[in-house]
Amino acid sequence: MIKISQRHFRTVPVFIGNRTIYCDVPETEAEKRAGLKKRDILFEHQGMLFDVGNRYQPLFTMRDVIFDLEALFIGNDRKIKDIVPMRKMDGSTAYTTPMRVPIRFVVEVNKGYSKKYGISIGDVVRIS
Q: Exposed site from 65, 68, 104, 126, fewest CB < 10 Å?
């Protein structure tokens, strides 16, 4: 049996070019810390959206996440500022963008998603 998640999140569509990623949105600090932990799978056009509130270099870890991801770091101007690969079960590394620009949102998707669908730094992101 595939366990998608034991938690229930509000889901919002995130539009990048002609792609739609359906993102779960953690609301509480505990939900944000848990992220995609204890989930067996992330479907092709599914992700998790974090509102990091206009921070420079927000940190993410992969403690207890069992599949590789990539993080799309999105600025206040709703453009992708960086795309950072993240390795599964890597709780020892804090992943962030090396750029010193304010980041408003981070979208976590499956590793390779941006390359597969032609998503690049500078692309405009629309969040409903």
A: 126
The third-level CATH classification (topology) of the domain covering 10-127 is Jelly Rolls (2.60.120)
- Indicate yes or no: pTM above 0.70: yes
Domain extents in the chain: 10-127
* Contacts of range 112-121, beta carbons closer than 8 Å, 24 or more positions apart: 112/70, 113/21, 113/47, 113/70, 114/70, 114/72, 114/83, 117/16, 117/17, 117/19, 118/17, 119/16, 119/17, 119/19, 119/72, 119/80, 119/83, 120/80, 120/83, 121/80, 121/81, 121/82, 121/83
Q: How many residues does the chain have?
A: 128
User: What are the tens digits of pLDDT across the range 38-59?
Assistant: 888 999 999 999 999 988 889 9
Residue type, 97: T
Q: Are 89 and 44 in contact (CB under 8 A)?
A: no
Ramachandran bin of 122, using left for φ above 0, alpha for ψ from -120 to 50, beta for the remaining angles: left
